[in-house]
Design goal:
- It contains 14 helices and 52 strands.
- The chain is elongated, with a radius of gyration of 47 Å.
């Protein structure tokens, strides 16, 4: 289903081949389709130091005095005899002595059966192996070439080691991608990212946007460019020197075919070593670099160009680890989470040292734990140390650890922990060997399953809102020992859930609530211990109300709460006074016509509601002395609240700034800053009278509702201040019910006249104040000089009336009459009797000046007006013959 290794190599090598051709073509023919993927011979290498022998795959560095066992592995029937030459170098300016060259004839029976042994001399810094076809003067020719140009061979040794280690990392990455895509394609993205982190590999994350079957091949494209620089590799060998080879690398790396500067250290080392080897040649020999990939004690050689057995014959150059002091890997724990000792597939994440995962340099690794108390059985450590008897202390436990780059860390074998009782939290440290030297790795905080006390923070208890997916944070020190988490609703139906340990002691549980209803859920937590499932009850809510402000004035018994979803509000408490909902209204309140949004203290002072309404900070502040029924911002709503006990209101004094508690019907509470406004002016309507417009010839219309005010009439009304004298600078606002139109009456503009200190007469000319299209409810309120407004009170219902001229009736009483007039569209219906039997409905949009109506009862017609269709009005109108 997915490309196999050979086809992946061929496809991924095209870019590298194009780079190598330009550098290498001048000296020898390059293989353009698959660089360094030609299989060469094998060498078995073992290293003995202080009586201990390790295979070459476990040796990151050599030291003076080490004994090398070298055994060339030639195929059966090898027709060309190869000479194996081991060479030790001591720097770029100090040619090695003749004694540092060792030759072995690989075709002899003794070498084939026993190999050769070479001791690394004192002061050696690099080691190289040569495999050369036998020719006249072969050994002397090789020795002369090395002694003549020691610096170039030093550089070749360094580059070959870097390139071989980077190629090993790349091979390990490709192996991981291939195996993951074969057995678990759904996990390819997660495992690829862990592989890349472990091996310090650069991957193209856009590959994960492709169809699943194309992702694996995408990740392995241009594989030569995937390997990133590894500071640990650089510290194990000398840094690459400057010079013409480095200049060449810089020039090639900036070319478009090399990615415009996205240059891999792997490519750099290869290009460099090919350049160096290409410059060293004699009449008999040319030098081919060989990458050495180590596995146990075998070095498998990878070649870029087929060897030549005609003059100049090809000499294979093989690099060995540097001769230097050991430098241990700078590895570290990848996070600071706590891990559970009872987890069967326990993986401790490690990064910072790709060679730990790509090679066998780190070997015999174990996790060391402090002494546990044994309760049953006799657990043994990795080294086979026997445990103590039941109930006794045993030696520090050592658990085997295996480097696993696919999972991003070390897999720990916890099978020997059966019966061991550890503290709730303990520290385990990775130990092992780095080559011949012991080392201490990173430490991890571990715990064992214990009795958990799962809690949810108060702020999070109110955070699960239906209508969208949400996340719940659950806290306990035992978070790392959770095997699985599921969520069920009140009916026991499971919900699709994902979870992770987001930080030490915290589980993050994603709960899908897109199509859920408010109610109870249960989070079922299963630790790594059968029979200990724990159920954590949680509550889901509808989107919570948000409160912007509460406008309340001293002396009032009602206030106006503004915000959103106020249908959820159960009560509001200020000190000992409790307010409950009276009647909700949405958008711009009908009770708030006269104040603009810009003037609204709520809009000006309130901050946007918090995403978690239960912890709404900063708390909005309502300014005192402002209108209790101010218009609210579009999309919000207002809710009038009434005090349950008027006696508690005396404790609320003007100017106080208090924190109100808003209780929601589902039990949640919101906090809101409230400023008590100053006492509002209180006035009462004593009486009112309507002065009709000048009489016109035609009908006299008499309105049936005494609260209806003809739009062309004028209104006089008397008001009385209840608590004090009527201030001369106080005003009366009159507005339509929707707040669209308003006017101000005052002593200054002559529309208010004082009768005495507390009583005034106000005069309103609706047509002048509002224009000819105003209609509907009119309300009034008093506004003091500082802007404090009283409560709105009903004043009149403004109606528009038509002008009726006459009615012409035919001689036949069974026929309809014709009504003549203007603005007939203002009539809703016409009837000949007050019961409105068989009325004439006036169609909307009538533009004619005549209308067919029933025959009047004498000279009376009965009308209903569009502005007040509930009232029955009379029209005394001349009736003329047709």
């Amino acid at each position: 289903m997915y490309p196999k290794r050979d086809s992946i190599r061929r496809a991924s090598a095209l870019l590298l081949a194009s780079l190598l051709v330009a550098v290498f073509a001048a000296s020898q023919p390059a293989r353009a389709d698959n660089p360094f993927d030609l299989s060469g011979p094998q060498l078995q290498v073992r290293v003995t130091r202080a009586g201990k022998t390790l295979p070459i795959a476990e040796v990151p560095n050599l030291q003076a005095g080490d004994q090398l066992w070298l055994h060339p592995v030639m195929p059966a029937g090898q027709s060309v005899h190869f000479l194996l030459v081991a060479v030790f170098l001591r720097g770029t300016t100090n040619p090695p002595p003749d004694s540092w060259f060792t030759r072995a004839e690989t075709w002899t029976k003794k070498v084939q059966q026993e190999g050769i042994r070479v001791t690394i001399p004192q002061d050696a810094q690099q080691a190289l192996l040569f495999l050369a076809p036998v020719t006249g003067g072969d050994f002397d020719t090789l020795r002369s070439a090395v002694r003549a140009r020691p610096g170039q061979f030093v550089r070749a040794a360094q580059d070959l080691d870097v390139a071989s280690l980077n190629r090993t990392r790349l091979e390990r990455f490709l192996d991981g991608i291939e195996s993951t895509s074969d057995y678990d394609p759904k996990q390819l993205q997660q495992k690829s990212l862990l592989l890349a982190r472990s091996l310090n590999i650069k991957i193209n994350e856009q590959c994960f946007d492709l169809p699943r079957e194309q992702q694996a091949s995408c990740l392995t494209q241009n594989s030569a460019q995937l390997v990133l620089d590894d500071p640990h590799t650089e510290s194990m060998v000398a840094a690459l020197t400057s010079g013409s080879a480095s200049d060449l690398i810089g020039q090639v790396s900036s070319a478009p075919m090399a990615g415009g500067g996205a240059y891999s250290p792997y490519v750099g080392a290869i290009v460099d070593v090919i350049k160096i080897m290409g410059s060293i040649h004699t009449a008999h020999y040319q030098y081919l670099p060989a990458l050495a990939l180590a596995k146990t004690d075998t070095l498998s050689l990878k070649l870029n160009t087929p060897p030549s057995f005609e003059n100049p014959k090809s000499v294979l150059v093989i690099g060995l680890p540097p001769v230097s002091a050991a430098r241990q890997p700078p590895w570290r724990a990848a996070d600071k989470l706590v891990y559970c000792l009872q987890q069967p597939a326990l993986v401790l994440p490690v990064d910072g040292a790709p060679l730990v995962f790509a090679t066998s340099y780190a070997h015999d690794i174990f996790l060391r734990l402090p002494s546990p108390a044994s309760t049953s059985g006799s657990p043994t450590g990795a080294a086979g140390s026997p445990a103590g008897a039941a109930g006794t202390q045993i030696a520090a436990l050592e658990l085997p650890a295996i480097a696993d780059p696919v999972h991003g860390g070390f897999r720990i074998d916890v099978s020997s922990l059966d019966g061991g009782v550890f503290p709730q939290n303990t520290t385990g440290t990775l130990h092992g060997s780095w080559g011949f030297d012991a080392f201490d790795g990173p430490a991890f905080t571990l715990q064992s399953v214990h009795k958990a006390d799962w809690t949810i923070k108060p702020a999070d208890k109110d955070a699960l809102l239906v209508g969208h997916d949400d996340t719940l944070l659950i806290h306990d020190d035992d978070a790392s020992c959770v095997d699985s988490i599921s969520v069920v609703d009140a009916a026991g139906k499971p919900l699709k859930t994902t979870w992770k340990q987001s930080s030490p002691g915290v589980l993050s549980v994603a709960i899908p609530l897109q199509n859920a209803s408010p109610g109870k859920l249960a989070v079922l937590i299963q630790p790594f211990s059968p029979g200990q499932q724990i159920a954590v009850p949680v509550q889901t809510y509808a989107d919570a109300a948000s409160v912007d402000g509460f406008l309340f004035h001293a002396g009032d018994d009602t206030g106006l709460l503004t915000g959103t979803r106020l249908d959820q509000v159960a009560s509001l408490t200020l000190k000992t006074a409790t307010f409950v909902p009276a009647a909700p209204s949405t958008a711009t309140s009908a009770a708030a016509p006269a104040q603009s949004v810009a003037q609204s203290p709520t809009a000006a002072a309130a901050a946007p509601p918090s995403a978690n309404p239960a912890a709404s900070t900063p708390v909005p502040d309502a300014a005192p002395g402002q209108d209790n029924a101010a218009a609210t911002v579009a999309g919000t709503s207002s809710l009038q609240l009434t005090a349950k006990d008027a006696t508690a209101l005396s404790a609320l004094r003007a100017g106080e700034r208090l924190t109100a508690t808003v209780a929601l019907k589902d039990g949640r509470e919101l906090k809101l800053r409230v400023a008590i406004g100053s006492a509002r002016p209180v006035i009462a309507l004593l009486s009112k009278s309507i002065l009709p417009a000048a009489a016109e010839s035609g009908a006299a219309i008499r309105l049936g509702n005494h609260d209806d005010l003809p739009q062309n009439a004028s209104l006089s009304f008397f008001l009385k201040a209840k608590t004090a004298d009527f201030p001369r600078d106080e005003k009366i606002e009159v507005a339509t019910g929707d707040g669209a139109l308003q006017t101000t009456l005052s002593l200054a503009n002559g529309t208010i006249t004082l009768q005495d200190a507390r009583t005034v007469m106000a005069t309103l000319d609706p047509q002048k104040a509002f224009g000819g299209s105003a209609f509907g409810q009119l309300r009034f309120r008093a506004v003091s000089a500082d802007g404090t407004a009283g409560a709105w009170q009903p004043l009149a219902n403004l109606v528009r009336v038509p002008s009726l001229k006459s009615v012409q009736c035919p001689a036949d009483p069974a026929q309809l009459c014709t009504l003549n007039g203007t603005n007939l569209f203002l009539i809703d219906s016409v009837a000949a009797n007050p019961a409105f039997t068989q009325p004439t409905e006036v169609p909307p949009g009538i533009a004619e000046s005549t209308l067919q109506v029933p025959r009047p009862n004498g000279t009376l017609l009965y009308l209903k007006l569009r502005d007040d269709p509930s009232a029955i009005n009379t029209a005394a109108i001349p009736v003329l013959p047709e």
